[in-house]
Amino acid sequence: MKIKRKKALLLMAGLITLTLAACGNTANNSNADDYKADISDNVSSEDYEAGELPQGEIVVVTNGQQQFLPANMYMDFAYSESVNGSVLFADVPAISTTAKMLDTDAGGRMKIAGAQEGSMPDTKLFGVSNTAALSEFSDGQRKIVSGRMYESANECIISKDLADANKLSVGDIITFENITLNAKGDKVVYELKISGIYSDATNEYDYPYQIAYLNRRNEIITGMETLINADSDGSGLMVQAYYFLKEGILLSDYENELREKGLPSDYRVVKAE
Predict the structure, then answer these.
(1) Residue 146, burial from CB neighbour count under 10 angstroms (0-12, 13-18, 19+)
(2) d(CA 122, CA 124)
């Protein structure tokens, strides 16, 4: 079974108000078949080989609503003798402070509840705990064309479209701010080193609005460790977590274990859909 993260807007249902400043601002999706690679033969890159996902029945913790527990709690649930492993995703609506994101002049604007006054995201930081879960790299829709996949904290990969538009190269530093403040009321800043640049044959938009935040070429991909290190309380992270139960472990047994770790009473452990 492939692990696929849910669409960002679905994760943030009930939290986002989307306003289009002008009509006719719809996307013209480009399909993989229409993608024209313009990668020079002399670009240095290291081939990315996906690792393996854990085995076992996949379960999630949920209360049936689009609400999120602190990121550290999801991480703690993964440290268990009951599971073979886990895969955690996180989305962070953010603002770039050093690069101009694609479609920032398209006219659309998006506001997220809880954001700083006047803050509207122009990109999303996408964190994943296991690069084997990056299915679009495994199936060839995305491919590292310069540098390598991120390996250490504070490394990231970006699209070739974004790199070309900003004249960015492997080794450059790019900086972002979370549009929400942390629990102490402070800004959360992410200073990331580009370890790799990838070509992208996915649809540029999954939704019919051509604005920067929804442009998939603007996605900044990094590790969960990086996002949590920058935001220690995890209040600005929207996490989606999958846990792989060992053979013979019952859902109820794992749920009882998580209760002892602080799982709220309105949350349940259920099979992943």
Answers:
(1) buried
(2) 7
Q: Per residue, what are the HEC states of the chain?
A: CCCCCCCHHHHCCCCEEEEECCCCCCCCCCCHHHCCCCCCCCCCECCCCCCCCCCCEEEEEECCCCCCCCHHHHHHHHCCCCEEEEEEEEEEEEEECCCCCCCCCCCEEEEECCCCCCCCCCEEEEEECCHHHCHHHHCCCEEEEEECCCCCCCEEEEEHHHHHHHCCCCCCEEEEEECCCCCCCCCCEEEEEEEEEEEECCCCCCCCCCCHHHCHHHCEEEEHHHHHHHCCCCCCCEEEEEEEECCCCCHHHHHHHHHHCCCCCCCEEEECC
- Best CA proximity match to 262, nearest among 89, 59, 69: 69
Q: In the chain, where are the structural domains located?
A: 51-271
Can you give the pTM of this predicted structure? 0.80
Mean pLDDT over 262-270 rounds to 94
For the segment 207-247, what is each residue's pLDDT rounded down to a tens digit?
777 888 888 999 999 998 898 888 765 566 788 999 999 99
